[in-house]
Structure formats: C-alpha cells, structure tokens
Write a structure and sequence with these properties.
Helices cover 41% and strands 22% of the residues. The protein has 279 residues and is of the alpha/beta class. The longest helix has 11 residues.
Length: 279
C-alpha cells in the first residue's frame, strides 16, 4: 500500500478507521440511497458485462453501500454477497435485497472462504492506500475470476472537484491529507499497479461519464451532504455555512430550468485472477 508519505505497507488500517468511515458514509443513509447512489448507473452498465454478471454467477460487491449494484446484479440472475462498513447502509441494502448475503464489516478482512466467488465488483469503494482490500478480493475470487473497480478520474467533466474543495475548505486540516491519498488512484497507472501488486492480470481500463440530476437546490444539498466527505465539514463548521459553500460551488451545474446536472469523469479497471497451474 502506498501511504501519503511515499512509504509502502501491506497492513490494513486499524479497525477504528473503517468503522469511522462507515459511520460517516451512513450518516444520512436514506438520502444517499435515494438521491446519490444512482451516480453508478453508467458504471454498472460498463462493469457488469466485462466481469461476466449473468444467471448463476456468484458475485461479491465490496463496499456495496445501500445495495443498488446488488439489486441490479440479482435482477440479472446472479447470486450476490456484499460487504460495507456502514450499518445504516447495509440496513437499507437488506431492505432492498432481502435475499442477498449482505454483511457489515471490513473489506480488509472479508468474512468469506478462499475461492468463493466468480466475480468481484467495487464501485468507488477501493481507493488509493487500499491495496490490502485487493489482496482480500484476490483470496476470495476463484482462479480465472474477474474483478472490476471504479473511481473518479481527473476530468473533464469533474463537477465534484469544486464541491469537494468546498467540503475540504471547511473541514479540519488533517482531513485534507487523507482525501489526497485516497484520490491518488485517479492518476493513470495507479489502479493497475495496485491490482498487479496483488497478483491480478490487468485486462482493460476505460471511462464513462457519471450523471446525477436533482430538481432543486434543497434536493441537491441533501444528496451531496449525504456523502462521506461532507461529514468532517459538517462537524467542524456546521450545516448552514457548508450548505452555502456547496451550493455556490455547484451553481454552474444548474440549467435554465433550475435543475442541477452533476457530471463526473468515472474510470474503471478490469482484471483477472490467473488460472492456477494444473500440472
């Protein structure tokens, strides 16, 4: 794992770190599920055919959130398991997908046996510094199985840049460094190196444009304030000031009808666990 100071570690974060992330991402779980999670629609359309989602496949969704990808994969006939750090998001995901095997836990210590899944997906769940999660994905993936991960690119378009800068500017200073480390994966070659270091064979890199639309400022604010990066600013500064800064940052996304159209460069990498030597 590449850390913020350039050193390398293979150790997963302490348990408190992923639990804190789960609390942050689940702080407004219903708003996230209903107003933001659809950002992944274009990405799921790209990932699922490439990793072989089809009837009968065993799929693991790492950082499954409130279960949108789980629902879509099950609609295509897959048997789906998922894990997320947020108890609140898993509760929503189970209400959406009562027949799925969804668990609260750490992606750095997956609670499934070796060689359990045919495919693994993680939509904006594995970031810079998360190489141990890829090692775990490799462990539970069957030889020859595929993994697809996605993350924000460097743009254009990148409407989230101004929004997240607004969050960062109102958050404690120590939060900014951790955001930069996580976002390192946006740069070409970083995700591929992480996957290859975990034993995967990289097959493909591609990109889509993620689009979310909100009908007015109140809905846009509820959507954006439901994200994990909003939490340090909300705790440090307060909702009213953060709201003003965020709405000002996304003013350029508002069309003449007053609808906010939030568009972002969204990248993916597909890789495969090599077949084991049968000799």
């Amino acid at each position: 794992m590449n850390t913020s100071d350039g050193t390398t570690t293979t150790q997963p974060p302490a348990s408190g770190t992923w639990r804190e992330a789960g609390v942050a991402w689940g702080h407004r779980a219903d708003d996230w599920a209903c107003l933001f999670e659809s950002y992944s629609s274009e990405m799921l359309a790209a990932l699922f055919p490439r990793i072989g989602v089809r009837p009968g496949i065993a799929l693991l969704d790492i950082a499954c959130g409130s279960g949108m990808a789980v629902r879509q994969a099950m609609a295509e006939g897959a048997t789906v398991s998922g894990i997320d750090a947020s108890e609140e998001l898993i509760e929503v995901a189970l209400l959406r997908n009562p027949d799925a095997d969804l668990r609260v836990g750490s992606m750095f210590e997956l609670p499934w046996e070796d060689d359990r899944f045919d495919a693994v997906v993680s939509v904006n769940g594995i970031w810079g510094g998360c190489a141990p999660a890829l090692a775990e994905a490799y462990r539970v993936l069957r030889p020859g199985g595929t993994i697809g991960i996605s993350f924000w690119g460097t743009g254009p378009p990148l409407d989230l840049r101004a929004c997240f800068k607004a969050f960062a500017g109102l958050a404690p200073e120590e939060h900014i460094g951790s955001m930069k480390r996580l976002n390192n994966i946006a740069f070409p070659g970083v995700a591929e190196e992480m996957l290859e270091s975990s034993g995967f064979e990289v097959l493909e890199r591609g990109a889509r444009t993620s689009t979310i639309e909100w009908p007015d400022a109140e809905i846009a604010w509820r959507a954006l304030s439901s994200t994990g990066p909003a939490v340090p600013a909300l705790r440090h500064t307060g909702a009213a000031e953060v709201r003003r800064a965020v709405l000002a940052a996304i003013e350029s996304c508002r069309d003449r009808r007053g609808v906010y159209r939030f568009r972002n460069d969204h990248h993916f990498v597909i890789a495969r666990r090599p077949l084991e030597d049968t000799e």
